[in-house]
Amino acid sequence: MNAESAREFLLKLPHVVETEQWGGLVFWVGDKAVGGKMFVMMNLDAGEMPVFYPAGPERMASLLELEGIVPAPYMARIHWVAAERWSVFRSAEWESELQAAHAITYEKLPPRVKATLALPKAELKRTVEARRALLADREKAKKQRAVEDKKAAKAKKK
Fold first, then answer.
1. Is-above-0.85 flag for pTM?
2. Which of 17, 50, 126, 151 lies at 20 to 30 Å from 32 by C-alpha?
3. Contact between 34 and 127 (Cβ < 8 Å)
4. Spans of all domains in the chain
5. What is the dihedral of CA 90, 92, 29, 51, to 10 degrees?
6. CATH 3.90.1150.30 fits 3-109, yes or no
């Protein structure tokens, strides 16, 4: 398996959304605008560890015994592992690992988010778009307040 075949597989799983963040690809169970959680991160740089994912506390210990699997930097405390190369597993094993990561993450979603993801596709799409618009408006207002606070601070100094 490689990044492209993993990407194709991940996008076929239920409720998966892909974003480009932190110099790589991040895959979410549900859109983060409605409370989705990330479950796989892939580096696009050739020299970096290619993939990070949650293994769960039970599976993590056995995975760390394999050569090429290490605790994920910054994420090991929540039972994430990182693969040093794609050849650590065969394609079918990768599919099983990534599917398990998806299931672990889905089970941790709050009931409210699961209910949102269970909506019919058209309604889910409208809900996500409305939430993104709300979040964008909040961010815009926050930036505006920061500008106004800066102006007020300058005026106060004079």
1. no
2. 50
3. yes
4. 3-109, 119-158
5. 0
6. yes
